Amino acid sequence: MTDRETSPRDMEPCKPYSGARVGLPPPRHPDQGLAPSGTTTSNEERAVTLRHPRYPDDSNILLVLPALDPIPDPAGVLAEGNSLGLGLHHDTARVACAIIANCRWDGYISESSVDGAPPFTTDPDHLLPGRNYYFHVPSDTGDGEEGTAYPIVPSFAHFRFPHNKLPPTWTVSGLSFPPSDDNPPRKFSFENTVLTRDGSCRLTASTIGVEIAHFIPRAEDAWFAANQMFQYSSRPEAVITNKTNNPRNAMLMGSQLHSVYDQRQFVVVPKWGAWLIHVLSGRHDEELASVYHNVPPKPLSDLAVEYIFSRFAWTVLAQTSFLEAGLPRLVVVRGKDGLPTAREVSGQDCRTMFTFTPSLPRSKSRSQSPKKRARDDTAEDEEEDYGRVRDDDPEWDTRGRPRKR
């Protein structure tokens, strides 16, 4: 019998491999979703509109936020037409409006636009079950006569960080972050510190495709410097260049969630005395909300609350369309002396002077390596400088992910 080369015709047909596993189902939370059983209507979406009380209802919307928080007892407290049994966390909405109103933590939410209208609730963890509310700011010497429109912050560039004056719900003792238990890496740098400290995505615990997600984005380095945010760093003296590259201003996050995070679709905020993911986009039955909304992150350590709050402000101030109505507005802008100044701006100027970036620039693919350049001698000598990692460092892509050599 002569040996001959086996042709495809001589081969036995392929048999299914007995070790094959069942395909994965779509991502789903163990509690099966946000809406109470039996209340869901197909494609129904619920949102809460938050308005400025000193302007007409056809041009006074500060924010529109999805209502994704399940109301504990739908039979007892549902607003008319709220068949889903979903509301919006009161203090998340109130603080978001207060940020737009130049950090007026004394502001409150009411169902009426009338001067002196009572607050809907004083409980920070109550839920807003209705569709329309007004954010009031008490009159004072800064706002002039009663009935005068309070000024709003037009963009994050003009937002002045409230040092030592965060909202009360952001400063409760249970929200502080413990120091990291891990020993610092041998090569003491921004990326190594975050990787060693977190180890995996802080939202899912996955180790696949993790990236370093900044709270205050690297694109806001100038704002970071102008507001002296370096003081919340673990090593303020080391913040020289790339100021936002500080371990307390970052955590590990899976690449897909990082992309959505940079599109301002969710934040991490205090709710019911704990850090929870709060989704700002989409319906309750869509994956982002149904899987992640109100879910606590994995254990966090050695972060700065001030940086997380800044991320909330950065997200909220890009979501308001208040200046796009084409009407004159009273706005708070940063003056040449760095101090906030209130002034009236025409509708046209509101549209042209203050622009909003819908999301951060996406990173280049691995095949599009940034142009290499020689590293600074100073950077090489200062191994412990958090700022030594450059945005165009050939070893790291523009999203903080290590490149393969």
TrEMBL record:
InterPro entries reported for this sequence: HNH_nuc (IPR003615)
Composition-biased stretches (Basic residues): 363-373
Name of the protein this chain belongs to: HNH nuclease domain-containing protein
Basic and acidic residues: bias regions: 1-13, 386-405
Pfam annotation, one family: HNH_2
Domain HNH nuclease: 201-269
Segments of this protein annotated with the region Disordered: 1-46, 355-405
